[in-house]
Every structure is written in C-alpha cells, then in structure tokens.
C-alpha cells in the first residue's frame, strides 16, 4: 500500500495541497461503506434501551450525525484514498507513459557507419528518430535529431546513449510537436514577412533562430567562441547580434539568417515603383 499512498500524495495541488475531487459515485459508495456499520451499531445500541421513543430518535440522530462528520467521512477519505482517486491515478499513469519529444545534437565522425551506431544506441532505449539534419562542422558532422522517447526516459539516459553511439558534445532539450515544422518552410514564411517590411529583419531572424537580440557590442568586444553568438552585418542597421546560450548556431542556421539579411537589404534599397496615373 505504501507505493499507492505515495502516488496519491503526488496528486495533491502544489498551491493548496488538496487532492483532486473524486467522482460523486465513488465518494457516495465510500461514505456508505464507512457509515453503514456505524449506523447499524448505533441503532442496535440505542433501540435496545428503555428510553422514550422521542429520546431514542434524538440520540440516534445526534450520535449518527456526529460520528458521520467526525469519523466516517475522514475515514473514507483516508482508508479508501487510493480507490477514490483511482481514475486520476490511471490518467496520470497514461500521461507518464505517453511518448515525449526531445531535440538532440551530437558531433559524429564523418565516416560510414557512424550514424548507424547512434541509431542503434537510441533504439535500445525504444527511442524513435522522427527527423534528422546533418551540418558539416570542424572534426566531423553535427547531427540534429527530433526524437520520440518513452515518457519515463530521462535526459541523462539520452545523453549516455548518444555518447555510447560514438557522439561527442551531446546536448538534449525537451521539445514539442512544433519542432517537426520544416525549417525551410519557416524560413520562407519569414522571408515573406521581410518582403512586406524589411524593418522586421531583427525580429524575423530572432524568431527563425529562437534566439535573443543583443544590444550592440563594443567595438573591441569579441565574439563567443562556443558558437552561441551570431553577428549579422547589415547596411542600415549595422551589425545585429543574436545569442542562444547553451545551444550553438549551426552553419545552416547562420546561412539562413544571412540570406534573410541580404533579402532585407535588397528590398530596402530597391527604388519605389512609380505611381500609376489614371
């Protein structure tokens, strides 16, 4: 019973500490199960006395009411807690077992069989690769995955599997189904946004890269060597700096951001079309 009691305690609200309200049917049955023996005992004890009829009714009513309020209902909530909250426990168990989505990155040697070794290591954890992007980097290739993993799988297990598969510098992040959106399609949508208004460039690039726009750095300030800072030159804004701590920019992301900047510059300096005359 201890694991079940612990499970029900985890259902309590973080703010008020109360458990979720059980269904009315289960609460009614639990109260009947606890109150019926009490009612029978009280009636058996009082009915056998020689008290007047009115006195018996009063004693039965008051005694049963007090016992129900002080004994029956608290006992039902405590003794039958796991049964009362069984639907919520089953729902939580289903949620816990549901697959979760992760984004993962690791650097592999650029040689045959390297990717296969990683996929086998992930398969041992019953993890499915939903998408993969490969970026050439110094010392090999940076493979970027979207993974569907069992709900109880932890970040450390994924990192260990990536290392066991021959990957170096592995990183993983919980993600959502939005990670499955095609990056090229997203870039085209943002390109259309810039075509309508080139001044939207900083915000569009920040949205594309899921990065933060930084204030203009000092002239002598250097760029981060870990790849988490990206600087894009523009003719009218000056250099625009973006940062994404803990998640270095890939060469493909850098190329897309620079192409958006080129598009904005072309549109900004394009002569306005002459107005049509009637």
Architecture overview:
The chain is of the alpha+beta class and 278 residues long. The chain has 10 helices and 7 strands. α2 packs antiparallel against α3, α8 runs antiparallel to α9 and α9 runs antiparallel to α10. The longest helix is centred in the N-terminal third of the chain and has 27 residues. The N terminus is likely disordered.
Radius of gyration: 33 Å
pLDDT average, as an integer?
76
Helicity range of the residues?
40-55%
Derived from helix and strand composition plus strand pairing, the structural class reads alpha+beta
Strand content: 15-25%
Q: Order of strands across the widest beta sheet? A: 2-3-1-4
Order of helices and strands: HHHHHEHEEHEHHEEEH
Termini separation comes to: 86 Å
Point out poorly predicted stretches. 1-6, 13-17
Major sheet size, sense and barrel closure: 4 strands, antiparallel
- How many separate domains make up the residues? 3
Tally the beta strands. Answer: 7
Q: State the helix count.
A: 10
Q: How would you describe the shape?
A: elongated
Multimeric status of the protein:
single chain
Q: Care to give the gist of this entry?
A:
With 278 residues, this protein is of the alpha+beta class.
């Amino acid at each position: 019973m201890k694991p079940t009691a612990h499970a029900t305690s985890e259902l309590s609200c973080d703010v008020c500490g109360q458990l979720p309200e059980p269904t009315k049917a289960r609460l009614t049955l639990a109260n009947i199960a606890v109150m019926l023996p009490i009612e029978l005992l009280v009636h058996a004890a009082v009915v056998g006395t020689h008290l007047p009829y009115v006195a018996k009714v009063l004693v039965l009513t008051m005694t049963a009411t007090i016992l129900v309020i002080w004994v029956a209902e608290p006992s039902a909530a405590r003794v039958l807690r796991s049964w009362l909250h069984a639907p919520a426990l089953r729902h939580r168990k289903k949620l816990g077992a549901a697959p979760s989505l992760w984004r993962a990155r690791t650097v592999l040697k650029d040689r045959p069989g390297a990717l296969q070794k990683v996929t086998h290591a992930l398969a041992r954890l019953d993890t499915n690769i939903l998408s993969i992007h490969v970026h050439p980097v110094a010392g090999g290739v940076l493979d970027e995955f979207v993974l569907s993993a069992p709900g109880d799988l932890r970040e450390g297990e994924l990192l260990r599997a990536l290392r066991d598969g021959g990957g170096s510098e592995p990183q993983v992040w919980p993600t959502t189904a939005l990670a499955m959106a095609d990056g090229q399609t997203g870039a085209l949508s943002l390109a259309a946004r810039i075509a309508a208004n080139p001044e939207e460039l900083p915000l569009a690039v920040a949205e594309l890269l899921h990065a933060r726009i930084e204030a203009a750095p000092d002239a002598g300030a250097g760029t981060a060597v870990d790849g988490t800072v990206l600087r894009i030159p523009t003719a009218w804004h000056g250099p625009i700096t973006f940062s994404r701590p803990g998640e270095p920019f890939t060469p493909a992301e850098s190329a897309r951001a620079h192409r958006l900047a080129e598009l904005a510059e072309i549109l900004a300096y394009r002569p306005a079309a002459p107005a049509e005359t009637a």
